[in-house]
Amino acid sequence: MWAAGRRRTAALLLGPLLTALALLVSSCGAPGQHSRTMGPALPPDAAFTHPGVLVDRAQLDAVRENVTAGRQPWLTAYLAMRDSPYGSYRYRAEPYATVVCPAGDLRGRGCAEERADALAAYTQALLFTVTGKRQHAVKARQIMDAWSGTLRRHTGANAALQAGWTGSVWARAAEIVRHTRGGGWSAERVRDFEEMLRTAHLPEVSAADPDFTGAWDLVATDAVIAVAVFLDDRRAFDQALKRFRERVPAYFYLEEDGPAPRTVPGSGVDTPRRVTSYWFGQATYRDGVTQETCRSFRQVGASLAATAHIAETAWHQGVDLYGETKDRLTAALALHSRHELRGRAPAWLCGGRVEGGLGPHLEVALNHLEGRLGASLPDARKLAVRARPAGTDGLFTAWETLTHAGSPGG
């Protein structure tokens, strides 16, 4: 359960929680400026690249070209997106001033609505870039303006998780509409949206806690870096890099780490018993095991996606986080894809019982590792192809077969 993701160490000791399509295409802006002199940080005098939250101009151009040419798997992925409820011109936002997200499976107030509306805004933004039809830009703006004119805060035990899921998706949608020719978003409305992200989302996701479970912390960091790029906020961007570098090595285990996993600085996970509890009962550590493998593969899938989202956004800004974590991502993808395909696990892993469900979360990492670096991940590729076209998880991952399957190497 996602709600259990914020348990602190003491609580964790108690247990785990389609035919080619003729499209109207218009010019979607000048190519983005990309630096591929990858370094560990954004140079002090460097400007942010826009659009540059998860997708950049080259990727958006490739999406439009592939769909217009009727190529697969992009055409099928596009049609699935277009025909989803999020792609309708009739879509109507349902904003709330206060979004209340309690722990557990309780519905809360405005939580499902904000998640759906953020995904709809992103969907409409992508449809605009593919078709050039301004009705889609108008719809994306309507959804975003409705929320920026209403939302004031997130509350409840899952407030940070909600702000993480939605903050990253809002920023993706806003980045495309703002930085695509013909988007038509007024400066005043942009400022309103910036203020919403700055006051209702960023404070919730910026409060790092070393005792969070990894998926929770990585989702929050995904939102921090996405919002930072949209706001041109260097301080938040640097914060996201630091948090990534602390969390990822402590989440994805490699045998080179030693006999026990690394921990996040300041964490209370400081004894073998606490480590085992924090890792949901796993006490044997081999390449690719993650902190939440024995919790569920759903959490691992979300963590893989969030990690790849952060690294992809940083990549578009000239920072190669992938280079620091490619071995961990490769090992985790290989191990979890293999056992998801087989439907079983060896006795050393979670006592031989694992809960599958990696979900539509593999495309971004797979594109970088195989497409850009030339790695071989046959099980992960088989699983990704089987799941295509990857749709949305209803939270923060959407249409990544369309945007990242075979996307430009950059």
TrEMBL record:
It comes from Streptomyces lomondensis. Pfam families: Alginate_lyase. The keyword Lyase applies. This is Alginate lyase domain-containing protein. Keywords: Lyase, Signal. Residues 1-22 form the signal peptide. Residues 116-248 form the Alginate lyase domain.
